[in-house]
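Quick one from the shared queue. A colleague (R.T.) flagged Lipocalin/cytosolic fatty-acid binding domain-containing protein as missing a structural entry in our internal table.

Convert sequence to structure tokens.
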Amino acid sequence: MATKKEMEVVKGLDVQRYMGRWYEIASFPSFFQPKNGENTRATYTLNEDGTVHVLNETWSDGKRSFIEGAAYKANRASDEAKLKVKFYVPPFLPIIPVLGDYWVLFIDEDYQYALIGQPSRKYLWILSRKPHLAEEIYSLLVQKAKDEDYDVSKLHKTPQSETPPESEEGPKDTKGIWWIKSLFGR
């Protein structure tokens, strides 16, 4: 069995510049996201204590689903962009903490697009400040993922509208069960 090389991670990430809204251009499908999600995005806001507030949103069947969490450096002494992200489930009764890795594998010098992964290579995201990404940039990010030993055949492009919904726009998934439904492939 071949050993995978250690992933290269961005060093010296400017957290202030990283804050704001990012659109999911593509990702590996995961059990914790609705299967028919569209206009998926993340909004990051720096907290006073240095942690990052995370708001992940997606729309499915015309309804907005979201989950909030917090991100922080995995090792405060390191300059590597290796973060931990913590969410609580179920979102409507936050009792079970779920912790994940969030590694910034690549970001352009203008902080307009990024490649996010984690050590097991089970999850991968291509993010952009805009809801659409030029094909040559998308191809560049896919190649970078390949170079990090990701199976890019699993990448699924996320549908994004020409004019994405504003935050809080549209009916909400008030039952708070989108994460349960997603476990069953819905």
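The first strand starts at residue 20 and ends at 27.
Helices lie at 15-18, 135-147, 178-183.
Added to the table.
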